[in-house]
Amino acid sequence: MLHKPGGEPVRTGRNLPLAIGSGVALGALVLVSIYPYPQAFVAITSAAVLLGLRELARAVSGQGVALALPPLLVGGVAMQVCAHFGGPAWLVGATAITAIVALSWRLRAGSDGYVRDTAANLFSLLYLPFLLGTWQLLIAAPDDGQQRIIAFIVVTISSDIGGYFAGILAGRHKMAPVISPNKTWEGFAGSVLGCMIAGALTVELMLGGPAWAGIVLGVAVVLAATVGDLIESLVKRDLGMKDMGRFMPGHGGLLDRVDSLLIAGPVAWVVLTLLV
């Protein structure tokens, strides 16, 4: 068991070895899909769309909300294909068409709860398939797309690792006690440091860019990842849930694992597109 400097035992709230093992297995699966055929990564994010939307549908059903799963599932997978092979314009177009179909799908149930249900549909569409589509924009970049997606994942994971260990060993001051009681400013500082180091190294060594661009990437990603974690925590609190599902042992549901990655994806794509 880990202990804080004062001798107090650290209570992580999860089976740490099991959580690490699950994370390593997921990372290995991603690497296999990236090399040597990056197109196979479309299958990974498409599977995430299918699993994640089902988690969201089950989560909101307890509040009496019904998602238009057929158009969301079909459109969500189409968005991954369009993003990879067509770029940003095709991703936006597929998102717009899916939104229109989802809004129309709900018409047959009448006006009672229409705004509530369609708002949940649009949230689900943007939160999962659209944000996952930005991962496809990263890997589809000419010449170094595989390195870009790996740099993004490494930097984002560094936020989790740096924040986790800094928080449990030195965390004293609560960052957002109402939303996420375990988050501390000390943990956030560890996340910032970890992301800046990982960003500088990956951008310079893997992408051939300047180290300062990697530092900018690290700062941008850590802010986005922290916000993403808080957003998912707030969603779960609003729905009265501890975990969104049981997809990964030690981690909870798929959405519990990729919450920070979802929000960091478009941020990483913008920074790398502009600076590298």
In a few lines, what is going on in this structure?
Helices cover 73% and strands 3% of the residues. The mean pLDDT is 86.
Spell the H/E element sequence. Answer: HHHHHHEEHHH
* Structure classification: mainly alpha
**Total strand segments:** 2
Strand order within the widest sheet? 1-2
Query: How much is the average pLDDT?
Result: 86
Low-confidence stretches: none
Shape: globular
Q: What's the N-to-C terminus distance?
A: 42 Å
How many helices in DSSP terms? 9
Beta-strand residue percentage: under 5%
Question: How helical, in percent, are the residues?
Answer: over 70%
Which value, in Å, is the CA radius of gyration? 19 Å
Largest beta-sheet details: 2 strands, antiparallel
SSE layout and pairings?
Elements: H1 16-34, H2 41-61, H3 69-86, H4 88-105, H5 114-139, H6 145-170, E1 174-176, E2 180-184, H7 185-206, H8 211-239, H9 254-275
Antiparallel strand pairs: 1-2
Helix pairs in contact: 2-3, 2-5, 3-4, 3-5, 4-5, 5-6, 5-9, 6-7, 6-8, 6-9, 7-8, 8-9
Note down, in words, how this protein is organized.
The protein has 276 residues and is mainly alpha-helical. The chain is 73% helix and 3% strand. The chain has helices spanning 16-34, 41-61, 69-86, 88-105, 114-139, 145-170, 185-206, 211-239, 254-275, and strands spanning 174-176, 180-184. The chain has a two-stranded antiparallel ribbon. α2 (41-61) packs antiparallel against α3. The longest helix has 29 residues, at 211-239.
